[in-house]
Write a structure and sequence with these properties.
Blueprint: E1 8-13, E2 16-21, E3 23-28, E4 33-39, E5 41-42, E6 50-54, E7 57-61, E8 67-73, E9 75-76, E10 83-89, H1 113-124, H2 128-142, E11 143-149, E12 154-160, E13 162-163, E14 170-175, E15 178-183, E16 196-200, E17 205-211, E18 218-223, E19 229-231, E20 237-243, E21 246-251, E22 255-259, E23 265-271, E24 273-274, E25 282-286, E26 289-293, E27 299-305, E28 307-312, E29 315-320, E30 323-328, E31 333-339, E32 341-346, E33 349-354, E34 357-362, E35 367-373, E36 385-395, E37 398-407, E38 412-413
Antiparallel strand pairs: 1-2, 2-3, 3-4, 5-6, 6-7, 7-8, 9-10, 10-11, 11-12, 13-14, 14-15, 16-17, 17-18, 18-19, 20-21, 21-22, 22-23, 24-25, 25-26, 26-27, 28-29, 29-30, 30-31, 32-33, 33-34, 34-35, 36-37, 37-38
Helix pairs in contact: 1-2
Amino acid sequence: MNKTKYEVQKEYLDGLAAVKKIKWGFIDENNIEIIDLKYEEVRGFSNGLAAVKSEKKWGYINKIGHVNIPYLYDKADDFNEGVAAVMKKIDLDIEYLYEENSDDTNSNSSINSWHLDAYMAYLEGEDSLNYEKFNEYKIKLTEKWGVIDTENKIIVPFYFESISSFKNGCAFVCKDGNFGLINKLGVAITECKYSYYSFCKENNLYLVSIGNVDTDKNNWGFIDNDGNEVLSCSHNYNICIYHEDKARIYIEELGWGFIDTNAKIIISCQYESVNSFSQGLAAAKKNNKWGFVNTSNQIVIPFEYDECFWFYDGLSVVKNADKYGFINLLGEVVTPIEYDKVGNFKEGYCEVSKDGKMGFIDKKGDLKISTKYKFNYQSNFENGIAKVNYSRKRYGNNYHVDQFYIDIHGTEYVFEE
């Protein structure tokens, strides 16, 4: 393995990797320093440019180290789709305190009196209450984000509290704590009304929420690049991430179901609980019992278990009467439902526990290493060997663990240190 001479080396982007040795610079894939190590901070190359920080300001350099965009910004994001979000700390003055929606900035009636009172108190230090209010709001007032192109032309003015990277010609912006969608010209596609957003790569839609995302009382939905609500935010939904091109969805007073990548409900919300799809089946709970359904909502494995999990390599853990076992995709019991605990398969073997003792089964459900060990295995099999702890003694604040090793045949080994 080659050792690097740098304190930090990041991944290669556009053929160059950022490296640090006191200062930051860039190397090529032959470990040749292409750009001198002289920067305070750097970001990776994207669209042929990298954001770099020098003397507390950010600018952009090209792949031979030439400064394409001067050091003008207090923060800078990567270029994406030919544009980048950048931040400036805007000096607070009287003009900035006018209402943003006013058509007449010379009119006294357009002044935001709360901001002005706070600002004057800040200057004079006479009103401690307003001074505290000003300090609380100061970051929002002074740190403003905009968008520039590769020629440093301002595409979106410095107006927003944050701006995401552009995807498919759109970006989310934050104003007064809420999010909305804009295009690359800075034109609003939606108003800033969402409390949360996340790009969903499975369907190229945006998962959005209206309401407080820290509570159960919020409305979730999907919007497209044009701001159209593909799945309306008019209901109290709970939407989970996609697995096998389907996502779990919960509608209050109805229950759990599934949507496809077009955000269309394909299994109506009717279940008490569901797990994500795995190997074409999803565990679902009805009348307090679990079973499995397919993508057409046909019952493949009856609702007869206290708990079901996910299928992996054709097997799923099931639970009845506080005991665990495995079933296959046909619902056949492969491993008797008699174990107190079961682990995960690795290298074809799975740890099981019965009556406080541990052993291993194979994927056919056969007990290959009997449940005879009193203490837990420290790890699953790796390269045909598993570690077993058989005693644990305390010496002051430290513990000493005695251990040995077993192979897949159950043969025990002790390796001398």
